[in-house]
Amino acid sequence: MTALAEPVRASQGEPTEAPAPTERHPRRVTVVPGGPVLVEGPVELCTPEGEVVTSDRFVVAVCACRRSKRFPFCDTSHRRRVRAQPSESG
Questions:
Q1: Domain encompassing residue 70
Q2: How far is C-alpha 50 from the geometric centre of its chain's CA atoms?
Q3: 75 and 58 Cβ atoms separated by less than 8 Å
Q4: Is 40 in contact with 46 (CB distance < 8 Å)?
Q5: Do residues 21 and 34 touch, judged by C-beta distance below 8 A?
Q6: Higher local confidence (pLDDT), 90 or 77
Q7: Distance between CA 64 and CA 13 in Å, rounded?
Q8: What is the pTM of this model?
Q9: How confident is the model over 79-89, as pLDDT tens digits?
Q10: Does residue 73 sit within a domain?
Q11: Longest dimension (CA), the chain
Q12: Tens of pLDDT, residues 13-26
């Protein structure tokens, strides 16, 4: 697994103006049940707080559970952590 790239955070307020595309290419968005939303990048995300966050990765995992410490990006906090039960011996 590769390390997650640090997002580029723009100043709060209005989203930055996206460059006009020369051709329209649809973005693929995949909703993972119980997990993140995968978006083909690069992306620019506008958070509920008005912050604009960008990522130039080829696929970006967007947090859908809001448990991520890297919100709006997923850090796999949605996964349940189950402790192994000690085995009973004798």
A1: 29-77
A2: 16
A3: no
A4: no
A5: no
A6: 77
A7: 22
A8: 0.60
A9: 876 566 666 65
A10: yes
A11: 72
A12: 444 555 544 566 78
Our count of domains for the chain comes to: 1
Residue 52 lies in a domain: yes
State which amino acid sits at residue 29. Answer: V
Q: What is the pLDDT of residue 54?
A: 92
Q: Judge whether 84 and 67 are in contact, CB under 8 Å.
A: no
Classify residue 44: in a domain, yes or no.
Answer: yes
Residue identified by tokens 């993140």 is 36
Decide if 12 is inside a domain. Answer: no
Q: At 52, list the tokens.
A: 């604009």
Query: What's the one-letter identity of residue 45?
Result: L
Q: Provide CB contacts within 8 A for 72, sequence distance 6+.
A: 45, 47, 53, 62, 63
Token output for 41: 């990048």
